[in-house]
Write a structure and sequence with these properties.
The structure holds two protein chains of two kinds. By secondary structure, chain A is an alpha/beta fold. Chain A has one domain: Rossmann fold, CATH 3.40.50.2300. Helix content of chain A is 48%, strand content 18%. A five-stranded parallel β-sheet of chain A has the order 2-1-3-4-5, with helices on both faces. The longest helix of chain A is centred in the C-terminal third of the chain and has 18 residues. Chain A is globular, with a radius of gyration of 13 Å. By secondary structure, chain B is of the alpha+beta class. In chain B, strands 1, 2, 3, 4, 5, 6, 7 and 8 form an eight-stranded antiparallel β-sheet that branches. In chain B, helix 2 crosses helix 5 and helix 4 crosses helix 5. Chain B starts with a helix and ends with a helix. The model of chain B has no long low-confidence stretch (mean pLDDT 84). Classes of the chains: A alpha/beta, B alpha+beta.
Chain lengths: 126, 214
């Protein structure tokens, strides 16, 4: 079951928008980071079941953070949520091990489908 | 004269505007990447509020390392109205011509290089500005109209930005993002400048946008 969720995005409003699209009755435990570097550190310390990752961030980009997290945990489920919807950007993060890519602005229905898929994957891994 | 941003927008409104700019420039980059086979490297957008009279110096400060610059400018108007200034580093026009020539369907024939540079920069500028401003307007439930692009080609940055173009009584909301291409020596800044005429509408539109996520 997905319990711990890490949201990595430099924009507080983007983190708020994402949380608002997630079901309120699942008892998720949210953790937040505002750049890729902090995201990697938090990933290592809290071991979230699911990570949402922006790409364009200061300090460390989401591209680098995905690579670092996958290096640490090759089963990490990372859903990239980004405004950078260039095909090369999407291919790069998927090649690095991201689970899927969702485009900003988030649509609630897309997020719920992604959540359900991530849930299935997590159960198979467990 | 310094302006207290919070007198114009709340902190949350500025964050929403910044996120909208981020989404909009992502759309621009994707549209351009469809035309030119390259990856546009995006950076975190930044919002600043200032008196319009401060704007030329602000832009000069950001582009001074380029020495010579080219500027593509378009006015846009709807309820969201203002100017978009796309500033390219020196030599970007020639680089872009080379990148376009790699495409199979592009015929650049034998026009003089300056005309090709002008047309290429205007076309690329039109794509970036149109997609970005259009996306901002779409997210805020507005529709904008554009003037045709105007260009200042390869001029020293101090001379390229004219003081007289800006109405000194107005406040400028400057949305700045810088970009570069993964291939080719092309980089630049996009500045969207909207005046205080749009502020009241913009504040309401930002609230309506975020209410979807409350």
């Amino acid at each position: 079951m997905i319990k711990k969720i890490l949201i990595v995005d430099d924009s507080p409003i983007a983190r708020k928008m994402l949380k608002s699209c997630l079901p309120k009755d699942q008892g998720f435990e949210f953790h937040e980071a505002c750049d890729g570097s902090e995201g990697v550190e938090k990933y290592k310390s809290i071991c979230p079941d699911l990570t949402f990752m922006d790409l364009t961030m200061p300090v460390m980009t989401g591209y680098e953070a995905v690579e670092e997290i996958i290096k640490h945990d090759r089963n990490a489920i990372i859903i990239v949520v980004t405004a950078d919807v260039q095909l090369k950007a999407i291919k790069t993060v998927l090649d690095s091990g991201a689970y899927m890519v969702l485009r900003k602005p988030l649509k609630k229905e897309d997020l719920l489908i992604a959540l359900s898929k991530a849930q299935d994957t997590l159960q198979k891994v467990e | 004269m310094n302006i207290d941003k919070t007198q114009i927008f709340t902190g949350e409104e500025l964050e929403i505007l910044q996120e909208i700019m981020n989404i909009a420039f992502g759309k621009s980059a994707a549209d351009l990447a469809d035309v030119i086979d390259t990856h546009v490297v995006l950076n975190v957008p930044f919002i600043s509020i200032m008196q319009v009279m401060e704007l030329p110096d602000y832009i000069r400060k950001h582009v001074k390392d380029y020495k010579n610059i080219s500027i593509v400018e378009q006015h846009f108007w709807g309820r969201f109205k203002g100017d978009a200034l796309l500033v390219f580093s020196s030599g970007s026009g020639k680089e872009l011509i080379g990148m376009l020539q790699r495409g199979e369907n592009v015929s650049l024939e034998s026009d003089p290089i300056e005309i090709l540079e002008r047309e290429t920069l205007m076309e690329v500028g039109n794509i970036l500005i149109g997609a970005c401003v259009g996306k901002v307007a779409e997210l805020l439930k507005d529709v904008v109209t554009y003037t045709p692009p105007m260009i200042v080609l390869e001029r020293y940055y101090e001379d390229a930005i004219s003081e007289s173009e800006f109405d000194p009584d107005k406040v400028a909301i400057v949305l700045k993002t810088n970009f570069s291409f993964s291939e080719g020596d092309v980089s630049g800044f996009l500045f969207l400048v909207t005046s205080n005429d749009s502020i009241q509408w913009l504040r309401e539109a930002l609230q309506i946008f975020i209410e979807q996520y409350e």
